Amino acid sequence: MGNVIFLLILSLLGQTIGFEALAARFPDSVEKKIIFRGDMARKMALLLGFEINQESERLYPLGQQDTWAIALREHPRDPAVVSDKNRSNRIHYIPKPEPYLIMEGNWLDTHTGPSPGNPRFMFNSPIISEGSTQMEWARLLNHLLAKGRIPKADGRYWEILFKEDIADQGNPLFSITVYRPRDKDVPPNRKGYFILMRSNDPQ
């Protein structure tokens, strides 16, 4: 895990870092549209649980770290002004005539943070608790875990329950990971899962 994920986990666990220190270590939020076409779009649609022959659009509310980064971008002197504003990213799948999968909204650009990643851009879910009302995230969680959990990959604060990568000729294009904070370290109001999506821009 890179430093970026470590900061996300600390925040989810309710552990605090000074505002200036966190801002200095956190990647920038950027608005971006990423488009996959053809067979790659189909692969993405299957991985994300879309019906392969049906056009569909889903909205995924962003986690608090992404929302905070957006607020820092829009109001750098006082991010609290809009940090509680609801934000979502959109994924739109179009199967015909040529499959398209469009992911757009706000992403964290890891190349502006302390540990550049590949894939470069990322966004994450809020905590997805049992019986969560975050319908799209909960549906995606159930879809991914039904594909089969991987052997536990434990860290100090988390375990990885699912991870899948999509590449093109060896070049990473997309990855999705399901995490669960370790129960013994988690406040009762923060128990659950979260999902991290990472993507490069294939264009």
Keywords:
single chain, alpha+beta, about 200 residues, nine-stranded antiparallel β-sheet
Describe, in short, the structure shown.
With 203 residues, the chain is α+β, with helices and mostly antiparallel strands. It has helices at residues 3-12, 19-25, 38-47, 64-74, 135-146, and strands at residues 28-37, 56-61, 88-94, 100-109, 121-124, 153-154, 158-168, 171-181, 194-199. Strands 1, 2, 3, 4, 5, 6, 7, 8 and 9 form a 9-stranded antiparallel β-sheet that branches.
Topology:
Layout: H1 3-12, H2 19-25, E1 28-37, H3 38-47, E2 56-61, H4 64-74, E3 88-94, E4 100-109, E5 121-124, H5 135-146, E6 153-154, E7 158-168, E8 171-181, E9 194-199
Antiparallel strand pairs: 1-4, 2-3, 3-4, 4-5, 5-9, 6-7, 7-8, 8-9
Can you characterise this structure?
The chain starts with a helix and ends with a strand. The protein has 203 residues and is an alpha+beta fold. The protein has helices spanning 3-12, 19-25, 38-47, 64-74, 135-146, and strands spanning 28-37, 56-61, 88-94, 100-109, 121-124, 153-154, 158-168, 171-181, 194-199. It has five helices and nine strands.
Question: Radius of gyration, rounded?
Answer: 17 Å
Overall pLDDT metric? 82
Discrete helix count = 5
Task: Report low-confidence residues grouped into runs of 5 or more.
Answer: 13-19
User: What summary fits the major beta sheet?
Assistant: 9 strands, antiparallel
The SSE string, one letter per element, is: HHEHEHEEEHEEEE
- What is the 3D shape? globular
Number of strands: 9
Task: Please estimate the helix content.
Answer: 10-25%
Distance between the termini: 27 Å
What fraction of residues sit in β-strands? 25-35%
What class do helices, strands and sheet pairing give? Answer: alpha+beta
